[in-house]
Amino acid sequence: MDLILWRHAEAKDQEGPVPDAERELTSRGKRQAEKVAEWLREQPLRDVTVLSSPARRAQQTAQALGLPVKTKTQLGVGASTADLLGAVGWPDHAGAVIVVSHQPVLGRLASLLLAGSEADWTIKKGGIWWFTNRVRQDETQTVLRAVHCP
């Protein structure tokens, strides 16, 4: 399984009565999402599933790929690592799953996958961390394949 954690791109600050979930990408954020989407389309991914937080900024980031996007409430602001792992089916899902979500949960999941425990690691706005799993000598291993920022 390939698991790509993609933090939503730069969004407008929350102003006045606009709910956090309705914040949109800035012009810079749209460019960030396009650059990362272009990079992702060049990668050898198979059977790609795109999952997104319901937050508008995450939806806009995911839509830059030009693939169907499934919205999962478990990926929203305030999600836990267990929420994300359950939503994506790690490590048993076939193919690739691209998850567009938020900090701090994306950084915490990256830490859990690489170090075995949750810590507050940072994934930059618009950035991706690409993990895969494999079995070697009857041992399941998690591999960090790439980190890419816009």
Characterize the structure shown.
The protein has 150 residues and is α/β, with parallel strands linked by helices. It is 28% helix and 26% strand. The protein has 4 helices and 6 strands, in the order βαβαβαβαββ. It has helices at residues 27-41, 56-63, 81-88, 105-115; strands at 2-7, 48-52, 69-71, 96-101, 128-136, 139-148. The protein has a 6-stranded mixed β-sheet, sandwiched between helices. The two termini are 24 Å apart. The mean pLDDT is 95.
Question: Which short descriptors sum up this protein?
Answer:
six-stranded mixed sheet, alpha/beta, 6 strands, 150 residues, Rossmann fold, 28% helix, globular, single chain
How does the SSE layout of this entry go?
Layout: E1 2-7, H1 27-41, E2 48-52, H2 56-63, E3 69-71, H3 81-88, E4 96-101, H4 105-115, E5 128-136, E6 139-148
Parallel strand pairs: 1-4, 2-3, 2-4
Antiparallel strand pairs: 1-5, 5-6
In a nutshell, what does this entry contain?
The protein has helices at 27-41, 56-63, 81-88, 105-115; strands at residues 2-7, 48-52, 69-71, 96-101, 128-136, 139-148.
Main sheet specs:
6 strands, mixed
Strand content: 25-35%
Number of strands: 6
> Structural class per helix/strand content?
alpha/beta
Assigned CATH superfamily: Phosphoglycerate mutase-like
CATH 2nd-level architecture: 3-Layer(aba) Sandwich
Number of domains: 1
Secondary structure: helix percent: 25-40%
- CATH C-level class: Alpha Beta
CATH topology name, in short, is: Rossmann fold
Sheet with most strands: strand arrangement? 3-2-4-1-5-6
What is the subunit organization of this protein? single chain
Q: Secondary-structure element order, as H and E? A: EHEHEHEHEE
Mean pLDDT: 95
The N- and C-terminal alpha carbons lie at a distance of 24 Å
